[in-house]
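This part of the workshop introduces the protein records we will be handling. A record pairs a protein's sequence with a compact description of its fold. Backbone structure tokens are a discrete shorthand for how the chain folds in space. The question running through the whole workshop is how a given chain folds. The record below serves as our worked example for the rest of this section.
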Amino acid sequence: MELNDNKDVLNFHLTKKHIFWFLAALVLSGTLVRFAAAYHRVHYFDLSFYVDWSAGAVKDLFGVYENVSNLDYPPLFIFPLYITGKLLEMPWVYELESFKMLALKGWQMLFDIATIPLLYLVLRRHSKLAGLMAASLWTVNPTIIMNSSYWGQTDSIMIFLLLLAFFLLTGHKPVWSGIVMTLACLMKFQSLYFAPLYALYLLTSYRGKKIGQTITAGAGVAIGIFAPFMMRSGWKLPFEIYMGGFEQYPAACLNAFNYYGANGLNYEYADVVLFGNLTAENLSMMIIGLSLMMLLFFYFTASEKSVWLLGFIFMQTIFMFTTRMHERYQIPVLAFGLIACFIHKSLLLFISYMGITVITFISHFIVMENMISYPWTTWMEHYDMIIIVMSMINLAVYLITLWISVRILYRHGVQDLVTSFLACLPKKKLTAPIVGPVVLQEEPACGFPPKLE
């Protein structure tokens, strides 16, 4: 560290040694905080499923779908659950509730902690200091700590795999990226929401040979993991898992702070009529189509873009306006938004990230308070009204973040957006995506590279 007397500022020179020990301190601190949360908060809300699934995996690993009736996860999570089941068979673990919590939440904490150095690696290409700042913010993010360590949900595993997949994809390693993206989709159904953006980048950034190798590698991993389970449960197993999981929660809203929550439709069936003959499910399908069109438009016309910003916008839209959303499904936008605000150097986007952090934390807090705290506190008697009010706030935050994001995508403001839209009209045949000027840095902060071999 050096003091510059002329400018009266501190200039930092980060060496590999400094960065290593800083990240080590973050990982250690994050581990201890998560360990304490997991150890002391004993509950079985949703964790009871993992108890049953892990026991079924130990009893008959590849026949687990036949023996466990409520198993609705894809098969990747079964392998770590097998180890969890073995741990739960140990008397010193099973007889101590706090140790059982560590066993049941351990994988979630492990991947949550692994995301800390991963965020640094993602942003190191643009700024080492930004990478350390993002890693620090993730270490203390209250929503993530509550999700992985307090509640014990598996979203942290999916987030780690998604970030790693896009990191490898944008880092000229598409084949490895395809393998990791496949693992993400084999971990949780919600990873498929990011598949359109992933496919867009892959198809427009790489040539046919690499695309073929990536698809082949991904397909090989999917078949290799599913095959032993399909041999016991039938060839329809993938369809039963993904479609069955989708149909298992036919509600318009499941504690999510979104459009349907704002309309008081929490736990109402998705086929509820909104107005006229339009049901919530029909509106949701329309929104999915419009969201895909929006993604395509932004992808091919924006003058400044990144997969992180586009993933942030797309998943925010899907969460806010489609049915069957749980409160947890907004969490991935935190990771994508955090990376995007540093890449695009946007203070307003960073403020949006902080706002969404507060909102997602409140959503987790009230769900946990509602489900496992007894007797209820007085304010929990107004649970439904809380969801309506917070959903309205989240909708307002969504509109603000969308405006901020569009301003980033189109650096020259409304005129740039209108010009891009007019260029997409079928007056002329477009032969290449419209891109803006390139800003020279260690590597381009925004925009996508030409096709790679």
Q: What stands out?
A: The beta strands are 2-4, 9-11, 253-254, 273-275, 278-279, 325-326. Confidence is low (pLDDT under 50) at residues 1-5, 429-445. The radius of gyration is 23 Å.
